[in-house]
């Protein structure tokens, strides 16, 4: 847990931003650090706290989620892919947190209550699911944002209550609006990355192209195969190899390139990746969401190797589609693949231009602005609406095309126009009888007779009212 000191002359009225992540890989925490950095330049943010929710959970829970995930990546990658696809349908997971997750969430809830945030940003789906539960129960009153960290949207990130959902690209936003979610709650900002304002904007000219070969923060034997193949390349080049925390890998690669050491620089873990990306001409490594986003922001095209099934495969598909990457599916042809990029006239320059076009270096600032300047009431998605969206997805039907009792409707706050609820049409029957006006609108009220309402209806009204006595809303068909 990290906490900055209070800043600015108006501490009593400034924003208190809490950033929740989960250390499954380094990308989610890197995105959290990027949002924290964006907070530091805003005069309306007085205090920031960053919390990795796994660090305050039990050791067993942490090991199952973090270490267990990477064990499966190494030994059973097909199971990772199956799990990714199985959890992709929107709202497949509904209802309260499972008991094990609920128990491990208690320290997070206590931390939220101690800090008393006015805004909460989630860079992992675990805390996002927790916050949805807390919003619906009235435990928290902060604005909440869900920030995805891969280029393709994955269904686990979609929760039943939030203020803003930030996705990496426009296609993800279109997908969510096809599910029926309102456009005022979904924004395509890119993936948040830390910025380095003092870095040179362009690479130095002259000299052979520089390859940046990354084994990832934890290291990996695949990097050795990449380096071995570059020894057979015909093109002129230099290479910097980053081995992460794997010191054994670093020693093996140093021995491997010793006969031509003037062409290679071998590093362990480094904090200088932004500088290295600005200096390099071609990145060789895995397409993790944060790595890919950092490369695109630096205008650095990629050679994709050994992606994790699921999210990294889909990240790679997007980069290939944009013309900012090539993929190599065999360790035996990596050198040839890199050579083909370097030897074809103009190809590397075209890929660099595509990377620059794809990059979103201001994503973290855009996330923060979208949340703090956005609606104050959360969007609530009823369980009936969730079932409709899931069923429509399974039938390959666009949910907004549905008609009749199972179709989707929205409730928009009369005063601001922002969408506060996504319901199914048949849920309006009781609300219209109880809260309908002569003009066809609704005035939701916290009245004494609400005990006669069903539990789901009381839950929705409580979340929309947020402690107020009444809320005029109008009905809109998507």
Automatic annotation (TrEMBL):
Pfam families: Glycos_transf_1 (PF00534), MGDG_synth (PF06925). Residues 28-193 form the Diacylglycerol glucosyltransferase N-terminal domain. The keyword Metal-binding does not apply. Keywords: Glycosyltransferase, Transferase. It comes from the Bacteria. Residues 241-357 form the Glycosyl transferase family domain. Belongs to the glycosyltransferase 28 family. This is Glycosyltransferase. The lineage of its organism: Bacteria, Bacillati, Actinomycetota, Actinomycetes, Micrococcales.
């Amino acid at each position: 847990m990290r906490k900055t000191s209070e800043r600015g002359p108006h501490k009593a009225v400034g924003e208190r931003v809490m950033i929740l992540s989960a250390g499954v890989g380094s990308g989610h925490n890197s995105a959290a650090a990027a949002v924290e950095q964006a907070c530091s330049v805003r005069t309306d943010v007085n205090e920031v706290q960053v919390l990795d929710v796994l660090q305050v959970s039990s050791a067993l829970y942490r090991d199952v989620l973090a270490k267990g995930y990477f064990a499966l990546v190494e030994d059973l990658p097909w199971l990772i892919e199956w799990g990714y696809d199985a959890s992709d349908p929107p709202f497949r997971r509904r209802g309260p947190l499972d008991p094990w997750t609920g128990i491990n969430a208690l320290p997070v809830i206590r931390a939220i209550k101690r800090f008393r945030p006015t805004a909460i940003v989630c860079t992992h789906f675990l805390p996002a699911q927790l916050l949805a539960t807390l919003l619906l129960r009235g435990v928290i009153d902060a604005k909440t944002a869900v920030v995805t960290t891969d280029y393709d949207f994955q269904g686990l990130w979609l929760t039943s209550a939030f203020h803003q959902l930030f996705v990496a690209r426009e296609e993800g936003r279109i997908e969510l609006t096809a599910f029926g979610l309102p456009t005022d709650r979904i924004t395509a900002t890119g993936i948040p990355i830390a910025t380095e304002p003092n870095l040179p904007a362009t690479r130095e000219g002259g000299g052979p192209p520089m390859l940046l070969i990354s084994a990832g923060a934890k290291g990996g034997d695949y990097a050795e195969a990449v380096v071995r193949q570059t020894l057979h390349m015909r093109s002129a080049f230099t290479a910097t190899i980053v081995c992460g925390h794997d010191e054994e890998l670093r020693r093996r690669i140093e021995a491997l390139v010793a006969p031509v050491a003037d062409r290679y620089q071998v590093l362990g873990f480094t904090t200088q990746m932004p500088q290295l990306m600005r200096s390099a001409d071609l990145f060789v490594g895995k397409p993790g969401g944060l790595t890919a986003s950092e490369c695109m922001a630096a205008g650095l095209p990629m050679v994709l190797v050994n992606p994790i099934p699921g999210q990294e495969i889909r990240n790679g598909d997007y980069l290939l589609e944009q013309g900012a990457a090539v993929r190599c599916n065999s360790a035996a042809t990596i050198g040839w693949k890199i050579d083909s990029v370097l030897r074809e006239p103009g190809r590397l320059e075209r890929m660099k231009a595509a990377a620059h076009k794809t990059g979103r270096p201001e994503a973290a600032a855009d996330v923060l602005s979208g949340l703090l300047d956005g609606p104050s009431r959360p969007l609530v998605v009823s369980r009936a609406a969730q079932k409709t969206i899931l069923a429509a997805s399974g039938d390959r039907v666009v949910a907004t095309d549905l008609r009749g009792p199972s179709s989707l409707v929205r409730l928009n706050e009369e005063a601001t126009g922002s969408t506060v609820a996504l319901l199914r049409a048949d849920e309006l029957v009781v609300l219209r009888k109880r809260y309908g006006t002569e003009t066809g609108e609704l005035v939701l009220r916290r009245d004494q007779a609400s005990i006669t309402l069903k539990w789901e209806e009381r839950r929705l009204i409580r979340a929309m009212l947020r402690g107020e006595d009444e809320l005029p809303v109008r009905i809109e068909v998507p």
